[in-house]
# Entry
Amino acid sequence: MKLISNIVKRLQRRFFDTVTSGNLVYNTCWEDPRIDRELLNLNSSSKILMLTSAGDNALDYLLDDVRHIQCVDINPTQNALLELKKAIFKNGNYALLWDFFGKGRKTGAELIYRQQLRQFLPKQARKFWDKNIHNFSPTATKDSFYFSGTSGKVARTVFNQIHRKGLMQAVNNLLAADSLEEQAYYFHDIEPQLWNPFSEWLIRRHATMAMLGVPASQRKMIEQQYEDGLLEFIRKSLHQVFTELPIKDNYFWRVYLTGHYTPNCCPNYLREDYFQILRKRIHRIKTQTSSLLEALQKSNETYSHYVLLDHQDWMTFTQPDQLTNQWRQILNHAQSDARILFRSAMPEPDFLPDFVFDNIRFHPELTESLHKKDRVGTYESTHLATVL
Ligand SMILES: C[S@@+](CC[C@H](N)C(=O)[O-])C[C@H]1O[C@@H](n2cnc3c(N)ncnc32)[C@H](O)[C@@H]1O
# Structure
């Protein structure tokens, strides 16, 4: 029995690695930079090392006039996405940025790409977009870039279900609600219809979670805390996001429920007022395709800030040695008082190697209250540490 369970685990891990190494998984960032900004205290001397994901949060931090942002991702497609955004800042205009990444579609995207953007991309990004730029061209079955990529395909399935059940008007009412009372009213109408044998089957599948970028280790963390596992966790998260926090500016859920942003509900990098500022500073963001550990091993730089997202959850059970080495490197490359920000599916960062706790100080007095305001709402905890 144990043998079979080990084989299943190995296959699940291989499947996850395959999905997340060659496909665009995150077409938008899934962490709330409004919370990050409160915690990071960025300024013109800040040098940040962070994971790329979709690059939105790096663009957000650039608004604080930081000196340098090194974006590292093991998945080359994630860096290709940030490079495409950079290319639009370099050689496009605001209308083009909004069409591509606000609306998620642009008729003639292929032509614009070839004429205006391709030459600004590094080779690896060019290779990816040569084959995938069509994802911005609207078609009868897919009218948004945000319904492409692996997480986008899951979003599309949910979107189709919402349509099929005639819930789109109720969802739009919910997203436009002016008060928590109004939100709760619409959400309670929608909620019972979200749960059915199909949605429960979809959530329980390892493949669905791999497409959303949730590895088995993170599922295990959730299952350790919730009796009914992922289903209970997702129910709780949805309830919190839609009934306890204002939804009007929650661009994270809006884009997956509708396929696009609106001018008043979008990431900061898509706001017209910021376009020229970001254009001037865009050269300060660099991308690098590598594991974080390798990037640090090869680097002679020191950093004032690290933004690790939730990627340590990916390593906890499967790569503990790498996690240990990574922390040695993080500390070696840290400037004095460097700030380290990360999120997790675990309530406490018990998974960190022991020596780390002797070298950093956590700030629950700052993170605990802010975590409750997180618009994404799918993490169990947010942690800020300063290097001693
Ligand atoms: C951990 S994921 C989580 C997504 C995230 N919560 C967000 O904001 O979208 C973020 C990115 O980290 C990358 N990643 C995971 N482990 C990594 C590692 N050891 N080194 C570099 N990148 C890694 C993934 O490819 C992914 O694009």
